[in-house]
Specification:
The protein has helices at about 35-40, 45-70, 105-120, 120-125; strands spanning about 5-10, 20-25, 30-35, 75-85, 90-100, 130-135. With about 140 residues, it is an alpha+beta fold. The chain folds into two domains: about 5-40; about 45-135, GMP Synthetase, Chain A, domain 3 (2-Layer Sandwich), CATH 3.30.300.20. The longest helix has 23 residues, at about 45-70. The chain is elongated, with a radius of gyration of 17 Å. The chain starts with 5 loop residues before the first strand and ends with a strand.
């Protein structure tokens, strides 16, 4: 299996410093700071990248589960809310998923959602915080 790379550089103190996070496989880098992470200032933060990673992994895994069950999806959209609490620590990640899947029952869809939540590689790596998924067919 492939090894994926990412890196971060931080300059200065926690509150006055800033940094850049980079993905190794594409020309993607994003600036971050204390203010973008803890004070709701515009910019990015590590938690957004965690949310993006989980959203992407979950959606792909769900697509595989649905396809293998004979219900190939037309589209899956997943949005993550990563809740940073005291500590600071991530205590909850909420995924809102909408999927267009012809002819599937909601019961079978929810079974595949539950399997994807517990089995996608990023979910397994994030075993510490609670992960909730609210999913609906559209």
């Amino acid at each position: 299996m492939p090894v994926r790379n990412a890196s971060a550089e931080w300059n200065g103190t926690l509150k006055k410093g800033s940094g850049i996070m980079k993905l190794g496989s594409v020309a993607f880098e994003v600036a971050y700071s204390y203010a973008t992470r803890f004070e709701e200032q515009p910019g990015s933060n590590p938690e957004e990248l965690v949310g993006a990673a989980l959203s992407g992994c979950f959606s792909m895994y769900l697509a595989a589960q649905l396809t293998n069950a004979g219900f190939p999806p037309v589209q899956i959209r997943t949005q993550a809310r990563v809740n940073l609490g005291e500590g600071p620590r991530i205590h909850l990640i909420e995924l809102d998923t909408e999927a267009e899947v012809p002819n599937i029952s909601d019961l079978l869809f929810q079974e595949k959602v539950a399997k994807s939540k517990s089995s996608c590689p990023v979910s397994m790596a994030l075993a510490g915080p609670e992960i909730r998924v609210n999913a609906r067919l559209v």
